[in-house]
Design goal:
Rossmann fold; alpha/beta; 434 Repressor (Amino-terminal Domain); elongated; 6-stranded parallel sheet; homodimer; DNA-binding; 6-stranded mixed sheet
Chain lengths: ~350, ~350
DNA sequence: CTGAAAGCGCTTACAG
DNA sequence: CTGAAAGCGCTTACAG
């Protein structure tokens, strides 16, 4: 029937009020007489009116929202992908008059992150996105952010903090999946060494727990020889240490079949395995150029990819919608998609923002 | 420096012309004197001006673009997902004044599809999205569409047709991946029966070819006992026949370890396997409710999911951008993402439009 | 070839 | 509590 989409003008005409009043009803910015309220609501219903978001965006532009973002910047393809997600979100929100202010720490420096948050607050942001460098500090993060500034976490949760919501992978289940993948590539023998960065990261612990739990429950032939906590404070140190630790493990255990690396250090572990020339397969995480090469050569069996660009893009958009009141928070944790990547699925994998326009 | 995003007004002011002239330059709708052209170009460059797409959308709204879409509607969750992708695209394009007109055939009826195309053309569409029911008919599709109406194909290509571009999975590689997955779940013995709808669908053929090629090249223990072409003309027939054929195969071959089903009929095959109580595992495609249940119970080992909602959403948006001149066609085929789904990755899978906002 | 003006659908002061 | 008016940044007839 009503072929053309109806507008706020139509609603105003039908209910016999001005468009300003309709707008008040729409966003309950209050003080509308009961009769008019009722009439407007009825008209909205009758015309099944839905506000034009584009028009809204254009005029709301003037409000000049600021969103702050802080994350630990790592100089590799994972960092590049995060940058791509941020850039995409920035461009998408630009015409809405949103200013996205980005700060980052180099490596996992917690005091730096607290400083970056202060700096963002000083610049007058209306909300924050935080990719925490360290999740044991929920309290201190809470303390650095005023109550009236909402913040959301990405990738790594800040459990027990005042965060509005968290967006990231389900690390325990990811650990379980990793164990399953390892078992699929094994025959009778399945001796595994786990390499994880030594950190208080909850995500890492969850992955290890998930892995071990799955092995115990369902994979009788799997034997976890060792769980190595890599020392380090920076990505460079981790990179060095994972390489050396891998070689060391190979020397100490004569019977390793698999390494499971709980994060993007997968590449350097695979480098060491390649160097050793042992028939060992590596399983791990993320999807950088180096990991792709090891997948192609068969040293890495499979990797679980958490699509960082999409997580950031999604988090930024979500916070924006929350700030302008277009979205309510219904659940505190949103689990994001992860992909299983193996040699044969390389042709289908989209990195960065992929096909998402 | 230039903190605020510059606007068309700024460009006009800087180059000493009217905004109408800037607009002419922007979209080269011609007839601008060389001097002014140069001045405008310089100003655009100097201000690094980027048009506000939101504002553009709002005014371009009046042009009232129509996009037509036709696809074979199947009454299952796959069809529901397609509907979700279409709905999301429709809502996204609504404020741009785009009317998305959707027609569908029931099942794979080619004459019906030709009729639906005619009907869409009669309604004055400016471009078409076609999910072909049958790819042997590129010529007849070409003939039903005037040269000035661009069309793109989704999911199944119309090779040799005049389509502007194709958006869909890489079916040969998908077949290869399927063979790899089967081999991962096998131990020493790996006897496989392939079930495929009897149709002229090129996608199906590609998947089978990929599967066989991979098996031959890299999986010596794999033995393909039979490739069954299922008779049928409608989804209901296929559903019935795949069930019966599965039971028949189980009777005829005493040693089947795996079924590979080239499409969403996976569910009915798994039903029959469950019924037979044989220790046979099914591999297949898509991700409907029924398939999820079989993954949970372990009858289906893994499924490869082509995310139909996203393919449609993407195709519609792409055609829109092409029609308004915001995007050029650079490559004729766009390969979309596919996910490997196994029991352990169920927690991460987003169906429909997932987290894509 | 060029510019002034109206308009897309909404929001936001402002005045009453 | 309510409405008229200006404005967001662009496009599109229209007049010159």
């Amino acid at each position: 029937m009503a072929n053309q989409q109806s507008t706020i003008k139509d609603v105003a005409a039908l209910s016999g009020v001005s468009i300003a009043t309709v707008d008040r009803v729409l966003h309950n910015r209050g003080r509308v007489s009961p009769e008019k309220l009722k009439a407007v609501l009825a008209a909205i219903d009758q015309l099944s009116y839905r506000p034009n978001q584009i028009a809204r965006a254009l005029s709301v532009r003037k409000s000049n929202l600021k969103i702050g973002l802080t994350y630990p910047k790592i100089e590799d393809d994972f960092g590049v992908e995060i940058g791509e997600g941020i850039e995409a979100a920035k461009n998408k929100l630009l015409p809405f008059g949103v200013e996205l202010i980005v700060e980052h720490t180099y490596d996992y420096n917690f005091p730096d992150q607290v400083n970056s948050i202060k700096s963002l607050l000083n610049q007058g942001v209306n909300g924050l996105i935080i990719n925490p460098v360290n999740d044991s500090s929920s309290q201190r993060i809470d303390q650095s952010i005023p109550n009236n500034i909402p913040f959301v976490t990405v990738i790594e949760d800040l459990i027990g903090s005042r965060r509005l919501l968290h967006i990231g992978p389900d690390d325990f289940r990811i650990g379980e999946l990793a164990a399953k993948l390892v078992s699929l590539y094994s025959n009778d023998r399945c001796n595994v060494v786990i390499l994880a960065p030594h950190s208080t990261s909850n995500g890492t612990q969850q992955r290890i727990s998930g892995f071990l739990s799955k092995a115990k429950k369902e994979i009788p032939q799997m034997n976890v020889l060792q769980v190595c906590a890599l020392p380090g404070d920076s990505e460079a140190e981790y990179d060095r240490n994972v390489y050396e630790m891998t070689l060391e493990c190979i020397q100490n255990h004569s019977s390793i079949d698999f390494f499971y690396v709980t994060n993007g250090l997968t590449k350097r572990c695979a480098d060491a395995v390649t160097e050793s020339e042992k028939p060992i397969m590596v399983f791990g995480h993320e999807f950088t150029k180096g990991i792709r090469e090891h997948l192609e050569s068969g040293v890495v069996g499979a990797t679980i990819y958490q699509k960082p660009a999409q997580q950031f893009y999604y988090a930024i958009n979500l916070l924006f919608e929350i700030l302008i009141g277009d979205r309510k928070v219904t659940k505190p944790v949103i689990v994001t998609e992860c992909s299983i990547i193996m040699k044969e699925s390389l042709p289908f994998i989209k990195v960065g923002m992929g096909n998402l326009i």
